[in-house]
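In line with agreed milestones, work has continued on tokenised descriptions of protein folds. One protein thus recorded appears below exactly as we store it:

>
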Amino acid sequence: MDEARDIVQNVLVGIYEKRNALEITTSIKAYLYKSVYHACLNALTQVQIHKDHHEQLKHQLSFTDDHDTMINAELEAKIWSAVQSLPGQCRKIFEMNRFEGMKNSEIAKVLGISIRTVETQISKALKILRDNLSDFLIPLLLLSAGV
């Protein structure tokens, strides 16, 4: 009801603003009726356009969410595979550091090795992972940057 009142008020304001340039050839009642009728049609068209636009955005967002989920799952699988392919001690040290959150000094104490060896093995693991995942990560970064 409020929308209908707004439409009628806007029509009346429009007529008032154009009062000097208007040439009404029919009755004022018929002119007002047709003006309000067309204004209502325009309002309904706008509502439909907004609804269509909203549905289109919703569809794009759901596609993006599905697409992002697929990319994340694929990336996770590739990372897991790359970590599993690391040499034994290198993998163990990397997992202790990254997955268990242990500090280098803690890892060194648990494994009975020097902190420097832990650092070297983590660096080696990161280099291997970068090399193994570079074919996947470069296109992914380009896609996420919108290139």
In short: The first helix runs from residue 2 to 17.
